[in-house]
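Structure (tokenized):
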């Protein structure tokens, strides 16, 4: 039989042993019935021999002894069955260790590839944050040109830093919905649960 992997091999092995265990348990139950029947046959034959003055049928005793012997063998096998199965599985230890390590190595390679992709995406994100910073900074410089006329007209200067659309401390009052800056709860949801936050999912649906 060709096995898909060591787990499949172990499953087949365990299934075979469990099938054999069930077979032995059924045989043990049957033996109990056969022994009771044969015991009654021996007793009936002994009584007949006494009444008729003949010798008991030795074959019946032999058959009964054989049944008891078989029951002892089956009982011993069942008592030692877990050890037999464990020994069979132990023979696969090195194969399990090797295949398990291969899976771990494959996963680590995928992790490293994704880590590189995440770094590239992170750089793109940070560069956009820098660009956002520069837009606000340049806008503040342009607004500074209004300082003299603002003073003459008694106007309060506009400080873009106080009116940024995006803030490091997200405030739903100024910005509702899926927030452009990455937040801790979004990373936690993706990292630990493997899911997007509700607002992220809604944004995906609206974008499609």
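Design, position by position:
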């Amino acid at each position: 039989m060709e096995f898909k992997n060591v787990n499949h091999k172990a499953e087949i092995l365990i299934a075979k042993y469990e099938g054999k265990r069930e077979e032995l348990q059924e045989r043990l139950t049957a033996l109990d019935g056969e022994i009771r029947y044969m015991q009654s046959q021996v007793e009936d034959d002994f009584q007949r021999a006494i009444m008729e003055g003949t010798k008991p049928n030795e074959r019946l005793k032999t058959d009964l002894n054989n049944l008891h012997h078989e029951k002892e063998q089956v009982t011993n096998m069942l008592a030692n069955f877990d050890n037999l199965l464990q020994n069979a599985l132990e023979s696969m230890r090195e194969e399990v260790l090797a295949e398990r390590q291969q899976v771990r190595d494959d996963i680590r390679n995928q992790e490293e590839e994704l880590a590189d992709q995440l770094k590239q995406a992170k750089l793109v994100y940070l560069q956009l944050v820098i660009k956002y910073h520069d837009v606000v900074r340049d806008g503040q410089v342009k607004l500074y040109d209004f300082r003299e006329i603002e003073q003459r007209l008694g106007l309060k200067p506009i400080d873009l830093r106080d009116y940024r659309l995006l803030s490091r401390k997200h405030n739903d009052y100024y910005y509702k919905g899926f927030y452009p800056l990455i937040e801790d709860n979004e990373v936690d949801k993706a990292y630990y649960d493997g899911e997007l936050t509700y607002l992220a999912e809604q944004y995906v649906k609206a974008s499609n």
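Reviewer-requested clarification: The chain has three domains: 6-91, 108-164, 168-208. The helical segments are 6-52, 58-79, 81-90, 93-144, 147-153, 184-193, 198-207.
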